[in-house]
């Protein structure tokens, strides 16, 4: 299997981004060449109509409240708005697979490393289905910034990412609103060791001490209907897949540690662009280091005698198959069909060479954090997925439409992984039971990664956060596995039997725009919409202050000083005060963007 410019610093990134030219800034997946064209030339005299795709209150109270506030303010500026409420799976299908939406309100899963922005925004993925670039955003200059941050590390990478964030704040393919605080509760009289790791990853479920089966309450029932590791609609975060499947490396508190890989050894392999003759080769190699153009080979030795849950051995062949399959789920038998998850990680892999059953060499496009992130994908059993492809191909004419065929849409219950827990049983919309996998390497004496709890995990669906809190409080549950809705946090009892578990925010609420279609292909129109959003008031009244407003989709040290939150959005502040919209000022922003109003105050732009 084989696959074969300097960015501006923070001080000039905004000027350089705007100077990249209207053409570059307006190239979109729909092929529109000039999305900043005055839409009066295109529009008729009908009132502009937009839909907001969102979740109902019983799925996410914060989501629908954000959507309703946006709906009210859009209507105040003369836009006809329709709320399109869908279940979590249907919302993700509409946005990620069908791509049939105007705006949506949702929660982005993000990742431990800001390289997830490459997946979310690079134009390579603009026409694909899945979590990669659901907005259809395409901008060549932006692509360059995203590519450059993958090649470097340290302060250089921070500067490159700063330029990405400045560009994002100008272009607005999506608008981050806030990072919600992650609160869960657990009983202390049944299990101990809750501080060993966040429950947003596999590590939070390892190292616990207690007897019997851990009973966890989840508000989202999708885990009882779909356990396909490739599904884009069954879940946002990967915790359940982390429990069922192994990866070569595992993220723990922001750091990557060996997991399925027993050892990982890195070495440099200069690319062709870094090679030169005897007189200048040394200089060229030095330049390659500075540019980050070197390929890096990583020699991996898998842990001995690892097996999938069906008893079949896990070998280097399964690892090689995984990377090939994630790149093209048709395995070359149909037009290329990338998996709707893990696309950005797999793109960092140039080749995989099998040495023997336990040893393999992976060539990556750099040993940067982005390259290392490629080693965190779930390893799939070749014998299971290859058989699926073979059966489909043998049945007649074979096609594998990207993001839409059974390999990525099937429920895959029971799943066949190799992780610390394996599937035992499920009742749709009621519960999922996992049992400890006794042959897992975490149970070996010479491995110190935390052991699975004694018997296993039982996830019971309890749709309401407040009800889940009450059940843990009265002893009919051990843990609220899902992040609690903000309204329920104040109801956590002050009891010695209850411990409150908090985690650093990573995922964020946001508004996404379908930039494939006018008028949302116009960045000035998108900017005018984002000025209708009072993030401070949303955090106060919707999240009860259990969230942090933000102008960027990343937090902490990654945020450039000019994009730090200081009471209002530093680029597109709310047009109003204390949650009240200044309607005339907001309308003026739409007129400045090239739109016009009729005598009845309706914004025109219907087609």
UniProtKB/TrEMBL annotation:
- Transmembrane stretches, by residue range? none
Q: Name one GO molecular function term.
A: peptide transmembrane transporter activity
The answer to whether the entry has keyword Signal is yes
Q: Which GO terms describe its biological process?
A: peptide transport
Show the ranges annotated as biased composition (Basic and acidic residues).
280-297
Q: Where is the composition biased (Polar residues)?
A: 267-278
Q: Which SUPFAM superfamilies match?
A: Periplasmic binding protein-like II
- Annotated region described as Disordered, given as residue ranges: 267-297
Per UniProt, the keywords (alphabetical) are: Signal, Transport
Query: For the Solute-binding protein family domain, which residue ranges apply?
Result: 255-601
Tree of life domain: Archaea
What's the family?
Answer: Belongs to the bacterial solute-binding protein 5 family.
The protein in question is named ABC transporter substrate-binding protein
Q: Give the organism, scientific name.
A: Natrinema thermotolerans
């Amino acid at each position: 299997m084989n696959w074969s410019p300097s960015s501006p610093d923070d001080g000039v990134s905004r000027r350089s981004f705007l100077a990249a030219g209207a053409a570059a800034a307006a190239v979109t997946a729909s092929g529109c060449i000039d999305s900043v064209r005055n839409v009066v030339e295109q529009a008729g005299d009908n009132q502009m109509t937009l839909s907001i795709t969102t979740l109902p209150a019983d799925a996410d109270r914060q989501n629908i409240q954000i959507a309703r506030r946006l709906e009210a303010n859009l209507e105040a500026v003369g836009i006809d708005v329709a709320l399109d409420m869908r279940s979590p799976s249907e919302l993700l299908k509409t946005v990620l697979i069908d791509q049939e939406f105007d705006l949506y309100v949702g929660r982005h899963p993000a990742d431990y490393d800001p390289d997830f922005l490459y997946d979310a925004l690079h134009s390579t993925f603009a026409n694909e289905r899945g979590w990669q670039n659901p907005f259809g955003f395409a901008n060549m200059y932006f692509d360059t910034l995203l590519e450059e941050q993958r090649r470097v590390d340290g302060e250089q990478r921070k500067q490159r990412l700063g330029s990405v964030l400045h560009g994002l704040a100008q272009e607005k393919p999506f608008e981050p609103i806030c990072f919600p605080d992650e609160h869960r509760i657990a009983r202390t009289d049944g299990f101990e060791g809750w501080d060993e790791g966040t429950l947003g990853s596999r590590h939070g479920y390892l190292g616990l001490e207690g007897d019997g089966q851990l009973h966890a309450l989840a508000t989202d029932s999708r885990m009882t209907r779909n356990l396909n590791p490739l599904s884009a609609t069954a879940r946002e975060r990967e915790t359940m897949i982390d429990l069922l499947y192994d990866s070569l490396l595992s993220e723990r508190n922001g750091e990557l540690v060996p997991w399925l890989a027993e050892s990982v050894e890195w070495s440099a392999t200069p690319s062709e662009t870094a090679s030169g003759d005897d007189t200048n080769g040394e200089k060229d190699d030095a330049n390659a280091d500075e540019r980050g153009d070197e390929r890096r080979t990583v020699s991996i030795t898998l842990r001995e005698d690892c097996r999938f849950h069906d008893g079949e051995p896990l070998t280097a062949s399964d690892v090689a198959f995984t990377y090939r399959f994630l790149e093209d789920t048709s395995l070359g038998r149909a037009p290329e069909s990338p998996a709707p998850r893990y696309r950005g990680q797999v793109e960092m892999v140039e080749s995989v060479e099998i040495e023997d059953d336990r040893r393999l060499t992976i060539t990556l496009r750099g040993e940067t954090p982005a390259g290392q992130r490629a080693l965190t994908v779930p390893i799939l059993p070749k014998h299971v997925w290859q058989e699926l492809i073979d059966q489909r191909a043998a049945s007649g004419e074979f096609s594998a439409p990207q993001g839409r065929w059974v390999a990525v849409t099937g429920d895959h219950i029971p799943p066949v992984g190799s992780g610390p827990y394996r599937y035992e049983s499920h009742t749709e919309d009621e519960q999922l039971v996992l049992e400890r996998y006794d042959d897992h390497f975490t149970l070996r004496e010479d491995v110190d990664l935390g052991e699975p709890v004694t018997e296993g995990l039982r996830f019971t669906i309890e749709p309401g956060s407040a009800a889940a809190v009450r059940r843990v409080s009265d002893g009919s549950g051990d843990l609220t596995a899902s992040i609690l809705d903000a309204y329920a946090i104040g109801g956590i009892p002050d009891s010695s039997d209850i411990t409150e578990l908090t985690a650093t925010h990573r995922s964020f609420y946001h508004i996404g725009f379908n930039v494939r279609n006018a008028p949302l292909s116009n960045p000035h129109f998108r900017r005018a919409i984002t000025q209708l959003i009072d993030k401070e008031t949303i955090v106060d009244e919707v999240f009860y202050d259990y969230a942090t407003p933000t102008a960027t989709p990343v937090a902490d040290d990654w945020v450039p000083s000019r994009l730090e939150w200081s009471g209002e959005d530093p680029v597109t502040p709310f047009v109003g005060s204390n949650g009240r919209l200044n309607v005339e000022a907001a309308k003026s922003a739409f007129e400045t963007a090239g739109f016009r109003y009729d005598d009845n105050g309706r914004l025109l732009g219907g087609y």
